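Q: Here's a chain of 278 amino acids. Please give me its 3D structure as tokens.
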Amino acid sequence: MSTRRSIIWLASYPKSGNTWTRLFLANYLSNAQVPVPINAAHRFAMGDSIVKMYNLVAGRAIDPQDLSLALRLRDGVLRGIVANNADVNFVKTHHARVAPGGVDLIPDRYTRAAIYIIRNPLDMVLSYARHYGISHEEAAGKICHPDNANLPTETSVAQYLGSWDMHVKTWMAYAPWKRLLLRYEDLLDDPETQFSKVLDLVGVPVDPERLRRAIRFSSFDELSKQEEAQGFIERPKESEKFFRKGQKDQWKTDLDPALADMIREKMGETMKRYGYLE
């Protein structure tokens, strides 16, 4: 029996708009008359690093710190996702498209398409620092480092990020499946046009009224209000709030110019390609 290529990856470096895109899709696809609860987002797009899924494949509770075991189980986890025979399975990932230890993290054989969300690293680094409870200096060092990773926790296996620059290049390199690149800044400026592209890629007709409602229901104000009221299960314990401001150009006031220069120097070529160097 041939494997179903049903995974549409929602891929991004952390803090680049992945959760927003996922909640937009959840609201559009469910066509709800009230906003989908943020804590139900995982029902519309599962994460690919959740320890519970690895436990299921292993048939026991694994030690997430065992990196090689998690890599060995990955194929079984992805096979489990596509085994539901759905046409489309949305899977959120922060992995770069790489093969640590020879294990292809984003295998073509399960992949139908990918939506890749990119954000100006000068802004992303500020959110990244807050999210992980680290200094701007440390965050800037990490996003420029080729071996950057999210270390395993009790609920999540390791995530292989690499530098921001490398992450973008791996996802934009040749692939035998369709890709849509979304710039976070364009999502902010013109959500209707950008989210319509998402629906086109997924193969869902665009209904203007439903589109506007899904955009409203996944707006930062709405998400932040929900987080205030009920918390957000995906917020790491180091971070006081998951949905902060989600603005652009905050780096102009909040990022030390020396750090901005370092990031530009190390990753300027890719920043320029995607319109992030003025």
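Q: Can you summarize the key feature?
A: The chain has one domain: 7-273.
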